[in-house]
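Reviewer 2 asked us to include a model.

Predict the structure of this chain.
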Amino acid sequence: MDNSSLLRQMLLMGIGTSSLVIEQISKAADDLAQSGSIDPAAAKQVVEKVMTQLKTEQGNLEAQLQRQIRNVMQDLGVPRQAEMDELRGRLDRLERQVRSLEDKLYR
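Predicted model (structure tokens):
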């Protein structure tokens, strides 16, 4: 499993958890509104407030998770994509130089 799919799975778990929390809060607010314990408008406001807070926290969590993964990968010595691209370019140039030298040698 590559790192991007691990990150994707972790984010999807967070989204799934958030959705479940919102669903449960919505159900509880509806139950309270139906029983007359709370005004339906107030119940709706509570749900909207929780949804807004969850979205904000989810964005913060995603950024924090990406930083943590980047740090772990760096600690493990995993090269960044830009470093890999640079090495591929250097390798391509070296291969061209070797072919050029071989062509000169065998002429």
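The two ends are 48 Å apart (CA to CA). Residues 87 and 101 are 21 Å apart (CA to CA). We have added this to the supplementary material.
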